[in-house]
Amino acid sequence: MSDASLTPLVLASEDHQRSSEGQGDADVPNIGRNRTLTLFVGALTVVSLLVLAWTGFELWRGFSPTRPLGRIVSLLWFDLILLVALATFITVQGFYAWVDIRDRLSGTQVYRRVVLFLVVVASLPTFLISLVAVLVLGFGIQTWFGGAVSDAVNSSREVAQAYLGEHRSRLNFQASRVADDIEGLNELASNLSAVQQVIYKSAGVRRLSGASVIRRDGTIVTSAQGLSEEDVLDIPSDAFDLADELRPQGNRVDNRGVEISLPDDDVLSMLISIENAFLTDTYLVASVNVDDEVVERVKLSNEASNRYSNMSRAAEQYRLIFALLFFVVALLLVILAGMAGLRFALWLTTPILELTRAADRLGSGDLSTRVTVADETRGDELSTLSRTFNGMANQIEAQQVALLQATDEADLRRRFSEAVLSGVSRGVIGLDSEMKVNLPNRRANRLFDLDLEDSIGKPLSALLPMFDDLLAMAKSEPAAIHTGDVLYTRPDGKVRTLETAVVAEMQGESVLGYVLTFDDITDFLAAQRQAAWSDVARRIAHEIKNPLTPIQLSAERLKRRYLKQIDDRPDIFETCTDTIIGQVADIARMVDEFSSFARMPAPRVDDHDLVDIARRVISLQGSAFEGVRLEDQTGVGPVRVNCDMQLVSQSLINLIKNAAEALQAVIIDGELQEGLIRVSLQQTQNGSTVVTVNDNGQGYPPDLLPQLAEPYVTTREKGTGLGLAIVKKIMEDHGGQLVLSNADHPDELPGAKAQMIFPPASISAPPPGDSP
């Protein structure tokens, strides 16, 4: 960094020119310019880094309880003292620089904040990480050298010792029995072969790897895969003395052996003193092999346990060393950040403070304020910033009036548009010339359950493609208003009808944008059709039902009066009269359905068990349809619902009847062997109760699904189209709904599915004594 780069910027105003006279490089504090101070700071920093590196090398070499830890602690304390001295020096120099800038430039906020920011940014993460590291290390050391780890190490050692102890006890017992066998011989002195035979036999029976009879002087009396003379000489005399002490003086003793160590690590050996009338001062050495891998594991376990115990005693020293190390490193990083912050703040704040004053004057309304660049040929960022500031000031001054006018107009138009759209009951979406969303109202968001404001700038075709045809017409003929009904399928599968209009916003021959308006008229159309069909049903019931009874009575009277008087083909006469009577009955049934639809009674709500209602209907309808079987999956119940039992039963009968008649038609065509209707009952997570009628037929026609529950819509040749409409009306009167769909779940029958959904509000508590 050169001194020239620290030359402050000056305002192109007379007041500041007077306050800036005589400034320049003199405005910059002297910190960093004194060579002696710089060398001193550098020397302290280098020494601290060297000491820290030495400490790190000592830690890298590792330490153990046999190595001194005091030297590492001393190095850390020495380094800490150096860093404290360095931090004190930097703090004092920074304070002097701050006072210098305050007196010369009458503004120190930027300088102070830059230095403070750099120090805080460096110190907070550093000290937090160091603190976390110390805590984690402390908890780790506490965990490593105590509690479960210590218990595990001790348990491992105890298990290893217990394993060898078990082998020792078994060997001691077996060796004592061999010694008893030898002492029980009567001719040992004169027949050593008998002794050897006993040793071989006993060693084999008792699974010993070796057995020998020796003397204290190293002589081997006899051996069965046992010792060499060198091994005998290695046995300490204390072992012989202890074996003599353990020798029984009368009664037999089970464990009287003394463990001895032989050169082979994978062999356990016992020394037992034996004596009788023929042999004196003799000893039995019995051995058994131990798995060499087990022995090695035991040895490693003991060594690891010893090392762990030694390190556990030095745990506090480790914790202190690492805490000091982390603190020293953190302090060094903070000091280096402070030094860098001082230098950077001095270089940055001096010209920026001048530029800030100019910006304040510009912000206060003095648009003639400019910054004078000391050297126009300089290309550093600060010079570029000053030139950019001047260009910005010129542009602001030139555009201020026009900008204020445009802002006022835009704000007025925006507030007017928002006020108008917020009060519109229809959904409105404003589009630009490229059919991208730019202004939706709240009603549009509610209709589509979308947040269209987050989709501003996106093409409408990607969000709501059902409007593409109308928008294409509006784009081809922008001068006309295009209207139409659009079908929208909601995420829950329901199809809604939207009354839609599109108009283009024109400016001359150019299209500035489009306005799309729409409203959901599904319920209105359904109510309109239902009202119309109800009126038609009343008229049909009134006009047709009156003559039906006389016709039926007349046909029955003709049959009774004249059937016996006809001699020529009376069967034809009987068939004709029966046909008249049957057709009149069919017409009467249809008229009754019309009448039921036209005069649907209000539900008389009471507390009923929905499972019981469903089972009664299934029982009554179980054998009513040839070739169709009903399956009850309503559960164990009860499910209490506030409803009209007669109307709910009628609804369920209608659904079963519709399904059965559809299945019978398929069976007649030979496409199905047996029809199956499954009636089930479930309770959803939101508290609703759903009664489902599912069959294995061909399902509903997909194109008619949205209209199947409307009056006089049917797929059967002799159907009236009122059964589902009546069920829908009954469910709506109960506050519920009828949902028609085709089965799409593997657990469902692959046909049509009708669901009667009772809302949570209709669910009642079970009466006392009922179990859920």
What would you say this structure looks like, in words?
The protein folds into 5 domains: 4-144 and 314-363, no CATH class; 177-297, 2-Layer Sandwich (Beta-Lactamase), CATH 3.30.450; 423-520, 2-Layer Sandwich (Beta-Lactamase); 525-598; 606-762, Heat Shock Protein 90 (2-Layer Sandwich). The strands form 5 sheets. Strands 3-2-6-5-4 form a 5-stranded antiparallel sheet, with helices on both faces. A hairpin with a 6-residue loop joins strand 4 and strand 5 (267-274). The chain contains 19 helices and 19 strands. The protein has 772 residues and is an alpha+beta fold.
Question: Briefly, what is this?
Answer:
With 772 residues, the chain is of the alpha+beta class. The protein has helices at residues 14-20, 35-61, 70-105, 109-144, 148-183, 192-205, 229-233, 237-246, 292-313, 315-363, 381-422, 442-448, 460-463, 468-476, 522-562, 570-598, 610-621, 645-668, 723-733; strands at residues 10-11, 210-215, 220-224, 258-260, 267-274, 282-289, 371-372, 427-432, 437-440, 482-489, 495-507, 510-520, 606-609, 628-633, 640-643, 675-683, 689-695, 737-742, 752-758.
